[in-house]
Amino acid sequence: MAKYYLHGTLFPHEEDATHEFKGHRKICQEEIADMNEKTRKSVSRNICGFLNTGKGGTVYCGVDDTGIIMGIKLTQYQRDHVVGSLHDLMSRYTPPVPRDRYSIRFVPVLDSNIPLERREDLCMYDPKKHVDGQSRKALHLFRSQRRCWCDEDAKKMAFECGVIICDYIIEVIVHPWNADQCQGGIGDLLNVHPIYADEAGKFYFRRLASLRKYSLYEVTLWAELEASRRSQELIESLKNQIKELELSKDSSRQTSDSDNNDGEYY
């Protein structure tokens, strides 16, 4: 079944350690106007926080602070803009974030009065079929408060051409760190998840439903404690493996002695 959300309904999760709501699609700090800086924060801060916990998380753009699903109107060109802006942002982190650490998904938002049998068809709508492939190659304006050409195009489509633009929830997904599969962590043996500074050189960590900004000293201290904790876990794991090997050897010896005794008996 295709995934979708319904306008005006309550989001199925509350904001917590791995879920964050945003009522806008401002990806980086440069897109936030100075006058709104205290009340509106970029998505980047939350991405940084999810990366630095190592547990991952998802930012839902188009959900207000109370958890009500609003959606954001997006043309295909604007969707391309959001994807490009995210890739541009991740390339500016220190260290740069590889693309396998994050993904983005556009989930349709439908009116609740639409019959169930029609919702599946609406979710299957592909906006790529109705845009010019050559225009999709045009450069977008990132890192700016000014409107991009794709925003002007969307305005023209809606007001001059009468085109109905679909609503979406933008899900920006940060994948959990897997020391066995991911590369580039701290320490060749431990492979602790990296600590990232955002595009402004700031360190954020997710704490329940909030963010905390760390100083460089705090980050260094955290890395030392985390390395110590992971080292202890590795030592305990190796000890358990050694015990299992010893038990296996003892069991093999007992079986061998039993076989020898049986042979002597006969």
Automatic annotation (TrEMBL):
Record region (Disordered): 247-266
Top-rank taxon: Eukaryota
Family annotation (Gene3D superfamilies): Schlafen, AAA domain
Record domain Schlafen AlbA-2: where: 16-81
InterPro entries, alphabetized: Schlafen (IPR029684), Schlafen_AlbA_2_dom (IPR007421), Schlafen_AlbA_2_dom_sf (IPR038461)
Residues in the signal sequence: none
A UniProt-annotated Pfam family: SLFN_AlbA_2
Protein name: Schlafen AlbA-2 domain-containing protein
Taxonomic lineage from the root: Eukaryota, Metazoa, Spiralia, Lophotrochozoa, Mollusca
Name of the gene: 106068289
